[in-house]
Amino acid sequence: MKLEIDHSTQYFYETPVKKSIQMLRVTPQTLAHQQVLSWQLTLPRYGQEIFDGFGNFCTVLNVNQPHQVLNIHAQGVVEIDDTSEYNSDNRIPADIFINSTDLTRINSEMLEFAHKHTNGQANRTALSRLSLAVLEHMPYTPGSTHVATSAAEAFEKRLGVCQDHTHVFLSCARALGVPARYVSGYLYTAEDGHLASHAWAEACLNNHWFVFDISNQLYQPVQHVQLAVGLDYNDAAPLRGMRQGGGQEHMECLVRVRTME
Length: 261
Hints:
Elements: E1 2-24, E2 34-42, E3 48-51, E4 57-63, E5 67-80, H1 108-118, H2 124-137, H3 151-157, H4 162-175, E6 180-187, E7 198-205, E8 208-212, E9 224-230, H5 233-236, E10 239-245, E11 249-259
């Protein structure tokens, strides 16, 4: 299935920003389940291209001139294998993804929750039960959290979005001894206008990476385009940056993912 992706982000600032730097992870790579047929990144100036420690393709955008608006536009075509059962990815050792972070640190309540819904088992069936339990415990609720909300905080609030669902699942899976990673990217749905970037988890079982899209209860990479992976949101966020000046910030983001006839 060929997917046409259009991702536009605009930052508006109350006063001129003196300078800013952005780390962009909005360029997909050709992997076992996805092939990038074309991709274009439109920026206000040239960006340095690097690979980070997780193998993600990154563009560093450094704007040294005063600006009150910043436009970032990514678009292209990616073909995905809609018969894939799992992802194959050996860019870095899977065991790295057993490590916890501040955003994914587990507490006693979450550990009890993980064992209750998996019976302490670390297989695909048990993790699927865990995925459903996370969604039932934390119904999808836009605006209920923010990017710095930890898994423990979201779990206690019993509300969250895809980022929070993913962090809680990662915490639980890692506590069971399963390498699990945060994935950012795009999701194709039949409804026109999926208006946001998406996040989901992948767990490594028998050297294969299996999708656990908790928010949508999807378990195969047949609707997903991967942008970046990491231990948590901070490692895989499509856009992260710093600026000097600017006052209040307002961001508008529009993502369209459509099939090509």
